[in-house]
Design brief:
Blueprint (H helix, E strand, L loop, with lengths): L5 E4 L5 H9 L3 E4 L5 H7 L5 E4 L7 H4 L7 E4 L9 H6 L3 E3 L6 H16 L2 H9 L18 E5 L3 H14 L2 E5 L5 H6 L4 E3 L2 H7 L2 E4 L13 H6 L5 E4 L8 H9 L5 E4 L19 E3 L8 H19 L16 H4 L3
Parallel strand pairs: 1-2, 1-3, 3-4, 4-5, 6-7, 6-9, 7-8, 9-10, 10-11, 11-12
Helix pairs in contact: 1-12, 5-7
Length: 333
């Protein structure tokens, strides 16, 4: 089939990625804003969409895409795409597994260190002229402590590797979906176990699973109650993995030492959210993968993936390969 002529950007992407599309002969359309009512009418006659996180591609929205063939995500997650609806319509959904691994792993480590070294607390107290906070001896060493990973995919494995090699941490992991041969290759320094043991024994728990029906609310009141009183919880995956009201209640009662979240059930956070009033939590605005280097890499690779699909190729990261059996692809083959 011929190359797509029209690519829609519900949100702007880096100029280097736009150049990739334009050099391939595409007309690039940029929506004035990512609201569904704005994006929908622009989808008519468009063959590809490069999708960031500011809008969800729902079944209703896809009805506007009369010739839409590919939705290319600028990230590893694709929970803002109705994949089932896309498959029914023969729309290929792609993501970028691995493209943000280093950036998210580094952000996770930054949050772990900020929590265990009490960086926000120290900063706040120094600004309040309480220099004597240093004598409280609040910071902790990571060496010899236990790190629990919920999910040991690319990012979780990278966090585990760094913490084990750099800090000498003991590594526990819970990942029922990881292939047995992968688990076997990690034998000797990663111990796989059930979620309850992760919660009960870990000094730091870091979450690295996609948001799926089986993982939504995975960390709730029961799991938080299992955690040690001096333990920390970090989430750089998706907000829906943690029951936020349960976490707020847990932190208010200081049942655990603290938490750090880069992701939330609602983004942006509601201005009246009680989570913002807590002093034992660190909040960052879903920015783990938004480094200068990673954003450029994600945009360029998403553009390349879209072009590959429109050329009839099958790049790494296709979420729904079964969509290629749709009649629209058969007549082009």
């Amino acid at each position: 089939m011929g190359i797509s002529q029209r690519i829609l950007l519900p949100q702007p992407i880096e100029k280097e990625a736009v150049n990739v599309l334009e050099r391939a002969g595409c007309e690039v359309l940029v929506s004035p804003d990512p609201k569904p009512e704005t994006v929908g009418p622009l989808m008519k006659g468009v063959q590809g969409i490069i999708l960031r996180t500011g809008i969800k591609m729902t079944r209703d929205l896809m009805r506007h895409g009369d010739d839409l063939r590919v939705i290319s995500r600028t990230g590893a997650g694709y929970d803002n795409v109705d994949v089932a609806a896309a498959t029914e319509k023969g729309i290929i959904v792609t993501c970028l597994p691995g493209a943000n691994t280093v950036s998210v792993a580094e952000h996770t480590l930054a949050l772990i260190l900020a929590l265990t070294k009490y960086v926000p607390t120290m900063d706040r107290e120094v600004r309040r002229d309480n220099f004597n906070i240093r004598f409280k001896n609040l910071p902790r060493d990571l060496k010899g402590k236990t790190l629990g990973l919920v999910g040991l995919g690319r990012i979780g494995a990278e966090v585990a590797r760094i913490c084990h090699q750099a800090f000498g941490m003991r590594i526990l992991a819970h990942d029922p979906y990881l292939k047995e041969e992968v688990k076997a290759s990690l034998k000797g320094w990663v111990e796989f176990c059930e979620l309850e043991r992760i919660c009960r024994e870990s000094d730091v728990i870091s979450i690295h699973v996609p948001l799926l029906p089986g993982t939504r609310g995975l960390i709730g009141a029961r799991e938080l109650d299992w955690m040690k009183a001096d333990a920390f919880l970090v989430n750089t995956s998706r907000g829906g993995i943690i029951d936020e009201p349960a976490l707020v209640d847990c932190l208010k009662r200081r049942k655990i030492a603290g938490a750090a979240l880069d992701v939330f059930v609602q983004e942006p956070i509601d201005k009246n959210s009680p989570i913002k009033d807590l002093e034992n939590i660190i909040l960052t605005p879903h920015t783990a993968a938004l480094t200068q280097e990673c954003v450029l890499r994600l945009a360029v690779e998403a553009a390349q993936s879209a072009l590959a699909v429109l050329h009839g190729e099958k790049p790494e990261g296709i979420v729904n390969p079964e969509a290629f059996s749709h009649p629209r692809w058969q007549k082009d083959s």
